[in-house]
Amino acid sequence: MSDLLWPGDDRCGDLFSDPAVLAAMVRVEAAWLRALDGPGDDLEKLLHAGDAARIAAAAESGGNPVIPLVGLLRDRLAERHPAAADRLHRGLTSQDVLDTALALCLADTVAHLRPLFARQISALAGLAATHRGTALAGRTLTQHAVPIPFGLKVAGWLGGVLDARDQVRAAAALPVQLGGAAGSLAAPVAVTGSPRATLDLVAAVAADLGLAAGPPWHTRRAPFTRIADAFVACTDAWGRLANDVLVGARPEIGELAEAAGGGSSTMPQKRNPVLSVLIRRAALAGPPLAATLHAAAAAAVDERPDGAWHVEWATLRTLARRTVTAAAQTADLLTGLRVDPDRMAATLASARPGIDAEQRRITGGTGTPYRGAADEIIDAVLQRAGEPW
Predict the structure, then answer these.
(1) Which pLDDT belongs to residue 44?
(2) Residue 61 annotated among the catalytic residues of the structure
(3) Pairing label, strands 135-140, 256-257
(4) Which residue in 174, 61, 159 sits closest to 111, CA to CA?
(5) 60 pLDDT higher than 60
(6) Catalytic residue, candidates 264, 350, 352, 360
(7) What is the pTM of this model?
């Protein structure tokens, strides 16, 4: 899968692609069939090349891709296991299959993010430790404020990344959505013969898929809005540090640089901070996508909303892929970031004596280092960075 208009999208591979979503839906059907003592493993062997495009084209008539998928699987399964074909999808509804499949794709997204977080955190921790003594001009409202260590600035970046990591980790316990036609589990109970047996069935399917078990959440969309908010927290944190790199990489400042800048189609001297630009792009695009999911959650009506449910699917795909893309770009940016301590020192020297005005006013002189608790702050963030996922 690729996206010509979102450079870097190829970093995501098949994540949330049509074939990946189709395979996730088949996994849900197979887990359900296995729980009903059917040959669920055979389902994953029934897909052919081109099925995703065929099902996508057929999805419009029923409004979702589950309907044509079930028809296709039932026809092919009937040739081998007629009894299993009859039990396929029994007790399920389209929302059960699609919501749970999306949860599987989101779990895969989190799995993609974990090593990228590890790379970012390692790079940032190294920069913070290395540059705890590298002084630069701190800036507020675009103007010189007071001297700070560059390691403290990096510790701020790192704290934001750790906050985002923790938010993703908290939202990653995605549940299955199994509720039957209207969230009452009526059809599954009719299939199993008792509510208790049905709840055991739901738990078995959840365990099979590696998802959490729980009551139906047909119109409670918090599992999706929570993970969407976590993804936006990621792009917030990455965009924030990319903004600092963009400022520091301006030629007239020159304190920071990307490992390999991008070129221009017409100006051979250009070395554009492309990774930072693309990360900032993701930070700008993420919040409206999450807002769409919140708007859909707020617009839910009855036991399956008319349009609000449907708008979630592509929105989740787009947000997930863009988050993984930005994560990989941020990891590359940080592992290759070039720091120029001499340029930082020169800028700080040129800002004097004005930049020491607060120190003179409070202490009456400039003879002592004006670092505050910078070392303690850096140490606290570094300690947190060592915590496991």
Answers:
(1) 86
(2) no
(3) unpaired
(4) 174
(5) yes
(6) 264
(7) 0.96
Look at residues 225, 229, 227 and name the one whose alpha carbon lies nearest to residue 295. 225
Phi, psi of 143 (to 5 degrees): -110, 155
Q: Residue 99, CB half-sphere, CA atoms under 13 Å: how many?
A: 26
Asked whether 323 and 110 are in contact (CB, 8 A), the reply is no
pLDDT tens for 10-52 read 999 999 999 999 999 999 999 999 999 877 667 889 999 999 9
Domain boundaries, the chain: 94-175+218-389
**Percentage of residues in the chain with pLDDT exceeding 90?**
90
**CATH 1.20.200.10 is the classification of domain 94-175+218-389:** yes
- The torsion region of residue 87 among left (phi > 0), alpha (psi -120 to 50) and beta comes to alpha
Tokens of 101: 């499949």
Of 304, 317, 321, 322, which is the active-site residue?
304
pLDDT of residue 373: 97
Helix (H, G, I), strand (E, B) or coil at 135: strand
User: Phi and psi (nearest 5°) for 135?
Assistant: -85, 140
Q: Give the pLDDT mean for 354-359.
A: 94
169 is catalytic: no
Structural tokens at position 291: 């807002």
**Summary count for the chain: helices (H), strands (E):** 14, 4
Distances (CA, A) of 293 to 15, 55, 175, 212: 20, 25, 17, 21
Where would I find the H helices in 93-132? 94-130
Which residue type occupies 213? A
Q: Which helix (H) or strand (E) holds 149?
A: strand 143-149
Cβ neighbours of 20 (radius 10 Å):
20
294, two tokens: 């919140």
Contact 353, 264 (CB under 8 A): no
